[in-house]
Amino acid sequence: MEDQTYNMPRIGDMAPDFESMTTTGKIRFSEYIKDSWTILFSHPADFTPVCTTEMSGFALEKDFFAGRQTKLIGLSIDSIHAHIAWVNNVKKNTGVLFEFPIIADIDMSVSKKYGMLQPGESETAAVRAVFFIDPKGKIRLIMYYPLNVGRNMDEIKRALVALQTADEHKVSMPLDWREGDQVIVSPPKTVAEMLDREASDYEMVDFYLAKRSL
User: What value does the mean pLDDT take over residues 66-92?
Assistant: First the structure.
């Protein structure tokens, strides 16, 4: 059988499907993500400090993600019993409840499908991966972090808003873009479009780099 350890989905690929037990019950991933934005994120292990801060961060931002019609789903190579015990432990100690499902990937099958097992870092723990999946099931953005560096929740939120805004308005985002900032309009593809661009009210750096407000 082919070793899938190094098979890493790419931006533009359809999200690999799977069926797995989670802390909210058994799911078929393709059904769970259907017609919704989804963020799938992995953590190395339950009952570890950095992972606890990260999972708590996602839980505390549940209203933001719900407002963006985005589902959350976590994963680690732990049993469902370990997941439940950890969820309970964090709730008792901090009052934060992980309401989103957490995949019990004890056989590493999902981690291998998503390239989360990277032997140079660890052969038994998933690296900190984040997959942004659109309502059509396509992977739109991927982030990877090593085991000892926590993710940046502000950047995860910014990236989600940028993706959704780009799709809605058919525009691109400049460096450090945040909601409310000007966006970049596509470069002209014909001379006629170039002349129209020069006569527009866009903020022009040059004909190929123009910005506008939404």
Answer: 95
